[in-house]
Every structure is written in C-alpha cells, then in structure tokens.
Specification:
single chain, Immunoglobulin-like, Muramoyl-pentapeptide Carboxypeptidase, domain 1, 3 domains, 4-stranded antiparallel sheet, two-stranded antiparallel ribbon
Length: about 240
C-alpha cells in the first residue's frame, strides 16, 4: 500500500524519500509514479500540488549472535549540486571600456568565461565548506536531501567577496513561467521576482537577452524554443 504525498514548494524526490525512509530511486521508479515520472522527467523538478505515491517501507531482518558486536552501515545517496561560476559581462558589452591607459574593445569578449581556481566558502544549513573552483569554474558538492537554503561566497575575506544565495529544491518545471524565470535568474539573467508567473518588463528584457545570446528569435516571449534551450543550458 502506498501513501499519498502532496508536493509543497521546495520538495523534490530526494527530500521526500528522506522523510519517508526510502532511497529516491525507490519512489521515483515505483509503478504508481509512472505518470508523474513521464510528465516531470526530472526527480529534482516537481510542481506544488503534484502527487507522489510513497510505498511502505519494507523491514529487513539480519541475524547475529547475542554476545557479539555487530556493525550496521546506513546506506544513502546524498543529493548533489553542481555550480558553474562565470565571469560577469562588462556593463556595456557592445562598446569599449577603459582599463588603465589601454582602451580595449569588449564587443568580442565572451560572456560565458569561466572562473577557474576561484576561492569560495559554501554554507548549507549551518555547515561550512571551503575550497576553490576546478579548472572549468565548477563547484560540485553533496547536500542533505532536505536542505533548503544556503549560500556561496566567492573570494571570501577580500574586498571582492560576493555572496550568492542558494534556494535548494525551489525549481519549478520549465513548462511553468516561474520555472522559466528561475532558470534565467540562475544563469545570470535578472528577471526580478521569480516566484510568480508575471512577465514584467524585467522578465521580458531577460528573455530578450537570453534569446539573443543563444541565437533564438528575439521576441521577449516564452516559447517552446526558449524553454528547450533553457533546459539544455541550465541542465534541468
């Protein structure tokens, strides 16, 4: 028999599995969730009010002598996050900027230049980890499945320190306008409030910048081509 779990904002299959004592694959691959899996396709991207069926936990018994010491290891699959740190584009990507005594054209400056070997400090639910980005500007780390908030501080303890907040699990499907705006924001295209479906002037401008950047028809509207490219570039 299965338990019906109604998804709330911020839920994902990993956090639901942790709550009920399952591996995430057990729930995601359960036959009762076949329709949900077909619609959402990504276990980390659910929509509030989705229904997830959670099977009962099956007890497992192990035998052992009463006068002996036994060691049991709890298995688990931590959730993983990968971040790509990229250099911010110059204020006017189409003009020139002055750097000291040298005038440099920025028209051909790549806006996706990565930041390798960049020191960072990561804070997730009170746990702090320090490190540096790899050669491709990537940060990869494991988090508890139920984690909700965190932040990455780039170049900590310097005058160049920059804090990036992380809203863990709060990613709606790309089929929703909120999901489109959330992905735009994650990729550095500021579109204002990402928790509603309104296409404001900020959101329309962000869509235009994204569409121009990736060779799409520049309409400022949410269309299938834009959704597909967002999903491809964002990775989910």
């Amino acid at each position: 028999m299965s338990t019906k779990h109604v998804v709330r904002q911020g839920d994902c299959i990993s956090s639901i599995a942790e709550k009920y004592g399952h591996f995430w694959e057990t729930i995601w691959n359960h036959s009762d969730n076949a329709d949900l899996k077909n619609v959402r396709q990504d276990p980390n991207v659910l929509l509030a009010e989705d229904v997830v069926m959670v099977p009962d936990v099956e007890e497992k018994q192990e035998s052992g002598g009463t006068d002996e010491r036994h060691r049991f290891k709890k298995k688990g699959v931590p959730a993983k996050i990968r971040l790509k740190i990229m250099r911010e584009p110059p204020p006017d990507a189409g003009g020139s900027q002055e750097s000291g005594d040298v005038i440099q054209s920025t028209a051909s400056t790549p806006q996706d230049e990565t930041r390798p070997d960049l020191p960072y400090r990561l804070e997730i639910d009170g746990q702090v980890t320090a490190g540096s980005t790899d050669g491709e500007g990537m940060i990869e780390f494991s988090i508890p499945p139920g984690a909700r908030r965190g932040k990455v501080i780039l170049e900590p303890n310097t005058t160049r320190a920059k804090e990036i907040p992380l809203m863990l699990g709060a990613l709606d499907p790309v089929s929703e306008t909120r999901g489109v705006k959330q992905r735009l924001a994650n990729l550095g295209f500021d579109c204002g409030n990402t928790n509603d479906d309104a296409i404001t002037e900020e959101a329309e401008a962000a869509l235009r910048f994204f569409q121009e950047e990736y060779g799409l028809e520049v309409s400022g509207a949410v269309d299938d081509a834009t959704r597909n490219k967002l999903k491809e570039i964002h990775g989910s």
